[in-house]
Amino acid sequence: MKKMSVKMQITLWYACFVIAISLFVLGIVAALSESLLLSGTEKDLIEHVREFADDIDVDDEEEETSDFYDGGFFFSIYDTQGRLTGGSVPADFPLDTTLKNLKVQSIKGEGHRWLTYDMAMTHETQVVCWVRGVASLSAFSQINSILLNLLFIVCPLLAVLAIISGYFVTGKALKPVEAALENEKRFTADASHELRTPAAVILSQCEYALLPDTTREEMIECIEVILGQSRKISALISQLLMLARQDSAKERLELEPVNISMLTEIVAGELEESASGNNIHLSLELEESLVVKGDQNLLMRMMVNLIENSIQYGKHGGSTWITLRKKGSYVEGCVRDDGIGIAPEHQKDIWKRFYREDKVRKGTQETHSGLGLSMVLWIVEAHGGTIRVDSREGEGAAFTFLLPLLKMDTP
Question: How far is CA 232 from its chain centroid?
Answer without folding.
Answer: 39
